[in-house]
Amino acid sequence: MNPRLAFVAAPLLTAAYGVIRILDGLDGSRGPGLAWTSGHLAFVAALVLFVPVFWEMRRLAGRGPVAATSVAIGLAGALALIAQFGIDIVVGFQAADHDAMGPLFDRVRSVPGVPFVVYDAVPVLFYVGQLALIVRLAALRTVKVWVPLVFALGIVLPLVDKDLIPLGAVFMLVSFVPLIGRVSRTASPVPA
């Protein structure tokens, strides 16, 4: 896969998830149904596309221990988010309506360790790993200092209100623009 495509598609799919999430909630509840499933699948696809984004940022940041640790942290968070969204999709398929989803989620969250690993702590590492890589790139002067600030804003906005996920994704895409330029100039040619 062309890494430049991943730098664009991952934030766009994140924005798509955010927009679908908003539309799903227009009737006063979210899920289950087509919007719930398609939105969650969009974000899972985004998470998969963040893998080449992590590898490219690692390559640009140097393959030292800081970059490697940041990638490992970020990928652990991505896996936790994929598990979380996978659970959401399964619950959506099993539930007859929104009210039936609550008890199913309660059963999942009652499994020891699941809240910590899948919901509360480990998913945050996805954003921590990315931010650490972007800060490292700014410290190396590979990107301007505004890039990690814009990326951090993209992380914070959805924490303020989940309806700001699409705007946060736009900030993420803006922060990736200088990286896309770097990838296009430094990417290894694909063998024929």
Write the element-wise H/E pattern from the N-terminal end onward. Answer: HHHHHHHH
**Alpha plus pi helix count:** 8
Mean pLDDT: 94
Instruction: Quote the beta fraction.
Output: under 5%
Q: Detail the poorly predicted runs.
A: none
Overall, the morphology is: globular
Number of strands: 0
Task: Please report the distance between the alpha carbons of the first and last residues.
Answer: 14 Å
Described by strand count, sense and barrel closure, the largest sheet is: none
Structural class call reads: mainly alpha
Oligomeric state of the chains? single chain
Provide the helix percentage.
Answer: over 70%
How many domains in all? 1
- Cα gyration radius (Å): 17 Å
What does this protein structure show overall?
The longest helix has 30 residues. This protein has 8 helices and no strands. It has one domain. The protein is 79% helix and 0% strand. The chain has 192 residues and is mostly helical.
Describe what is shown at a glance.
By secondary structure, this protein is mostly helical. Helices cover about 80% and strands about 0% of the residues. The chain has one domain (about 5-185).
